[in-house]
Amino acid sequence: MSNNLIRAYAAMQAGEQLVPYQFDAGELQAHQVEVKVEYCGLCHSDLSVINNDWRSTSYPAVAGHEIIGSIVALGSEAKGLKIGQRVGIGWTAESCQACDPCIGGNQVLCTGENVATIVGHAGGFAEKVRAGWQWVIPLPDDLDPESAGPLLCGGITVFDPLLKHKIQATHHVGVIGIGGLGHIAIKLLKAWGCEITAFSSNPEKTEELKAMGADHVVNSRDAQAIKAQRGKFDLLLSTVNVTLNWQAYLSTLAPNGCLHFLGLTLEPVPVSVGSLIDGAKSVTGSPTGSPLALRQLLQFAARKQIAPQIELFPMSQLNDAIERLHSGQARYRVVLKADFD
């Protein structure tokens, strides 16, 4: 077998089950790192790419972007990494390193060559994956590699707003939707020291969410319960992709509070400008995070022993894992263990 031939699982067309697939990755470029995949998280964004929900997929499509593995090859320009080192790769595989956002440390907002790990690029449902060296994130030794993968997408997505909004232990943060993203947010906020309110449509999760770190749990289907939160939150993190009564949630913000979108709600969000002016409130959103933020997250998670709650599947049972995620029953992230050998 050629050194550049990689075994993987690919979607050949939208809506079809994934099948074994091999492709020639070509020569490793000077700025790239090649990583042998050990574990890869399964994210709703993978399903969106597999099914071409965003109309950006080219087939065959190899998804997977919450990757933990070991470096097997380094390009000549790769810096600060070594063969055999355990690392992670998340949503972004490449950025141009020359545009203003890249020069300013905001590589995730790259306006040049910004390549997602699974869009026009082969991802982690494979035995090996490649990425630009700056996006290959060293994994701390005391972070469990089996459960760390979801931190590289779901984790950084909820961690980056804490940095951007300068959240401190004195702040009260609400989390809307407690699934793959929301449960990691609760764990991070607990370690951060914040007061935490979880908004969940499933009251049966209440004790589980409190055990995870939530101080309060509010039924997101109960309009009166939401109204009772008026003026409380310094930051609200929305992880859902459905339309809710956003004006009601804006009323729960404290002065200078922010409603921050992480889940991709497809319908426009109606906002009363008066409600923003009165109280200096804001509505914001963000993608994942920079290589520096990713490094900070993994170091923080290692120090505080924060681990996503996962269900583990062999990668050869990838289609079963996808069905599990589709069912909405996964608690709370699905992780695949590579079993090509």
UniProtKB/TrEMBL annotation:
One of its GO terms (molecular function) is zinc ion binding. This is alcohol dehydrogenase (NADP(+)). Its EC number is 1.1.1.2. PROSITE patterns: ADH_ZINC, D_2_HYDROXYACID_DH_1. SMART domains: PKS_ER. Keywords: Metal-binding, NADP, Oxidoreductase, Zinc. Residues 15-336 form the Enoyl reductase (ER) domain. The keyword NADP applies. PANTHER family: ALDEHYDE REDUCTASE. Belongs to the zinc-containing alcohol dehydrogenase family.
